[in-house]
């Protein structure tokens, strides 16, 4: 949702979240679905309430500022709430595995 394609000649990555945000009204609302699924999945995986709260704040900031025409679209390119939330989940999973004495492969499987 946050890193679908790179703008040629730059290091800037755009995602479907940024592109959906260009559709007035509907786009930002549609982007909340996948963002909510990440938080739901984190809850199912046992993420602590503090991590879930941070994820919810990331989504709230993205939705609030993202709803401002033009400024919100530019903000979405840099904020990348979904990537932030996946990083929070990955951190939780790595810490849980370290506590159990196991090592997990935290290599990203796909783009978020």
UniProtKB/TrEMBL annotation:
<protein>
    <recommendedName>
        <fullName>DUF4112 domain-containing protein</fullName>
    </recommendedName>
</protein>
<dbReference type="Pfam" id="PF13430">
    <property type="entry name" value="DUF4112"/>
</dbReference>
<dbReference type="InterPro" id="IPR025187">
    <property type="entry name" value="DUF4112"/>
</dbReference>
């Amino acid at each position: 949702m946050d890193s679908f394609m790179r703008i040629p000649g730059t290091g800037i990555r755009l995602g479907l979240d940024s592109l959906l945000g260009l559709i007035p009204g509907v786009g930002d609302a549609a982007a909340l679905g996948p963002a909510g699924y990440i938080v739901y999945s984190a809850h199912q995986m046992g993420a602590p309430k503090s991590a879930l709260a941070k994820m919810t704040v990331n989504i709230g900031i993205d939705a609030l500022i993202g709803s401002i025409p033009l400024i919100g679209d530019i903000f979405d390119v840099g904020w990348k709430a979904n990537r932030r939330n996946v990083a929070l989940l990955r951190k939780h999973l790595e810490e849980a595995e370290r506590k159990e004495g196991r090592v997990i492969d935290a290599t990203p499987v796909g783009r978020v």
